[in-house]
Amino acid sequence: MIKLGPGVTKLKVGDRVAMEPGIPCRRCEVCTTGKYNLCQDVVFFATPPGNGTLTRVISHDEDFCFKLPDHVSHEEGALLEPLNVGVHACKRAGVTVGKKVLVSGAGPIGLLTMMSARAYGASAVAITDISQMRLDFAKEVGADHAVLADTPDGREMADKIISALGGQPDISIECSGAESAVRMAIFATKPGGVFTVIGHGKPDISIPMVNTVAKELDIRGSFRYCNDYQSGLDLVASGRVDVKKLITHRYTLEQTEDAYKTASAGEGIKVMISSARG
């Protein structure tokens, strides 16, 4: 923090903060009932018409700034954004001690969802992806089982998941947006289980509805995060989730174009841009 506006009471100049990047209207029904992530008038960094944060100075509302403890780095603070997508999904799905969890998609969101599930006490977490490189990385950062999605057949993939976990997952969390992954998760999840969806894929997909109904699966959407930032910060500050492991590339603000090229090429896992000079 380099300057404070009028009315700021909880922060002081010199504090280091993580910024939750969406400012809701605070007045509509979903805001006043506590689900501000669903606000239709939210102003969200980098989502048109809102600007991004590729600048050295930015103004942000105090109640969406979270003070970082001295031992938590700026990079860890920046990674609270994707981490809290996973934290919110785990809360929505009801991940608790002893649950078997399936996560589909081993990109940054899937990896952080897997790590969040482990932090919340899941007894075993299986993760799937079409990339063996990403699956190998997932094993390095805590996945119990990493299963290559080498067929679009949902039933066949479900059998592989069940075999890996030694039983059906209690909870499945879909992070890829792929229709085949949605079908796999529905076939795999145990009767009475929960299927939570983060991934955004095609607007209309085919799902095995009879299977869903016959097993009384709860299907839950999970959108961004809501009242989760402090939870995510606590996980990082306590060492229960090590987000630093996901950073594979670092660039300066002046190298932003190169950073985007690296990310677009699918190289590494998480690309970090720093505004620090020197």
Task: Describe this entry's structure for a reader.
This protein is an alpha/beta fold. The protein has 2 domains: 17-82 and 227-241, Quinone Oxidoreductase, Chain A, domain 1; 92-221, NAD(P)-binding Rossmann-like Domain (Rossmann fold). 32% of the residues lie in helices and 17% in strands. It is built from 10 helices and 12 strands. The chain has helices at residues 29-32, 74-78, 80-93, 108-119, 132-140, 154-165, 179-188, 209-214, 229-237, 256-264; strands spanning 17-19, 22-23, 43-44, 65-67, 100-104, 124-129, 145-148, 171-174, 194-197, 218-221, 247-252, 270-274. The strands form 4 sheets. A 6-stranded parallel β-sheet has the order 7-6-5-8-9-10, sandwiched between helices. A two-stranded antiparallel ribbon has the order 1-4. The radius of gyration is 19 Å and the shape is globular. It starts with 16 loop residues before the first strand and ends with a strand. The mean pLDDT is 96.
Given the structure, what is the number of helices? 10
Helix share of residues? 25-40%
Order of helices and strands: EEHEEHHEHEHEHEHEHEHEHE
Give the total of domains: 2
Look at the structure and name the CATH superfamily of the largest domain: NAD(P)-binding Rossmann-like Domain
CATH class of the largest domain: Alpha Beta
Please state the average pLDDT score: 96
Strands, total number = 12
**Strand order across the biggest sheet?**
7-6-5-8-9-10
Keywords for this entry:
278 residues; alpha/beta; Quinone Oxidoreductase, Chain A, domain 1; Rossmann fold; six-stranded parallel sheet; two-stranded antiparallel sheet; 12 strands; globular
